[in-house]
Amino acid sequence: MLARVEFQDVVRRRRMVRRYRTDPIDPELLDRALRNATRAPNAGFTQGWGFLVLDSPDDVARFWRASTDAVDSPGAWLRGMMTAPVVVLPCSSKQAYLDRYAEPDKGWTDRDESRWQMPYWHLDTAMASLLILQTMTDAGLGGCFFGLAPGAEPRLRAEFGIPAAFDPIGVLTLGHPDEPAPDARLGSPSRRARRPWTDVVHRGTWTP
Q1: Fold of 28-70+81-177
Q2: Exposed, middle or buried: residue 112 (CB in 10 Å: 0-12, 13-18, 19+)?
Q3: For all residues of the chain together, what is the average pLDDT?
Q4: Where does residue 183 rank: exposed (0-12), middle (13-18), buried (19+ CB within 10 A)?
Q5: Model pTM greater than 0.85?
C-alpha cells in the first residue's frame, strides 16, 4: 500500500514529470484516478468527457507512433516522455453540452454555441485531468499534461477510433517518477520563479 499524503502536500508536490521508471502502475490506482476524474465540476452535470486509456506497452507504442514523427530520433523531452507506462487522452464533447442545455431544465433549445462565453466542455475536462494528476501525486507517483503536436489528432483518431463527437484536449503521461533531485530538474520551473500568490490575487478591484 502506497503512503497517502495530506491535501496541502499534494498541491505543493504536484509537478510535471518528464521521465518515468519502468515500474507499472497498480491497476487499482489507475482506476481510482479515473474514478476521481469523474468527480470534477462540470456545467449542468453534463459529464461530457471521455478518457482513452493506453496502459499496455503495445498501445503506448502505438500512441507515440501516431502522435509524432520523431519516435526513432527523439530529443531529450520526448525520450523521457516515452518512458511512461500509461498514456491517457482526456477528451471533451461539445455536442454533449449543447444537447444538455437544450433539455427542459436548461431551455436553450436552439443549441446555439454562441451562448457559451467559454468552452466549458474543455474546461471541465481539464479540471478532470487535474484530478488524475493529483491522485497520482497523492499515491507517490506523478504525471505530465501536454498538448498534442500539430497534425497528430487525425492520426490518433484513426489509430484508436476516437469518435468525431469527442476532441482530445491534451495528453497525460503517468507513472513512477525517475528524475534528478528538484534542484537539478529541467523545465520552466527550474528557470522561472513562482510568482507570489499575493501578486496575482486582486481583492475588490483589479487596479489599486
Answers
A1: NADH Oxidase (3.40.109)
A2: exposed
A3: 91
A4: exposed
A5: yes
